Amino acid sequence: MSPESRVRDAYRGLGRGDRFHVAVRWRSCPFPEVEKHVPRAGRVLDLGCGHGAFALYLAVTAPERAVTGVDVDEAKLASARRAAADADLPVRFVHAPDGALPAGPWDAITVVDVLYLLGRAAALALVADAAHALAPGGALVVKEIDVRPRWKYELARAQEIVSTRVTRITEGTGVAFVPPGELEAAMAGAGLTVERVPLGRGSVHPHLLFVGRREADRG
Ligand SMILES: C[S@@+](CC[C@H](N)C(=O)[O-])C[C@H]1O[C@@H](n2cnc3c(N)ncnc32)[C@H](O)[C@@H]1O
Q1: For residue 179, cis peptide bond before it (omega within 30 degrees of 0)
Q2: pTM of the prediction?
Q3: What's the farthest any 2 CA atoms get from each other in the chain?
């Protein structure tokens, strides 16, 4: 069974709404492309993990990763825990009602399609906090939506407005995609060496990935 099938299969026993949401995430987000940039071992935090599909995928693709998912939404975490248990995957899911970052240090922190829900200032502050919670040699992997090309951005924005305001699938204060340059500057300002990785060619979603690395201890 492929890693993707194993993760999707983990949700087989859950309700139709959960299965639908996870299926949509797999179609709209290039999880395998993002996963390639996450260290293959160590303590990994998936911040804003939602139903946990990406956190489970991180564990399936590299069992040396000790994965923790955190979210503000307890209902999604309950689904994530159930899926992890059904698939017999040792992933922890932790509730952070106030959105606080669990204490590190972490060898990797992933933030996949979360920042646009927080508002610009809070998003930039969270990125800086995450950077500071990394162990030496650790990586911060941030997947967001680019604001260019404009039509793709407007499409993604419309979809997210439906998720947050109409179907209320996603918790958040609103939809405010952070300009990529500001995101990159916040990561660099927190001491990371930042790489911008092109993603999602051929997709209608203008995916954007930043990988920030904290220098390893010398000696
Ligand atoms: C679009 S979903 C993405 C979920 C998951 N990362 C994925 O890729 O499928 C955004 C998630 O961020 C969560 N979220 C919003 N604000 C948060 C915060 N301050 N701290 C942690 N999670 C948050 C929401 O509850 C939601 O589950």
Answers
A1: no
A2: 0.91
A3: 54
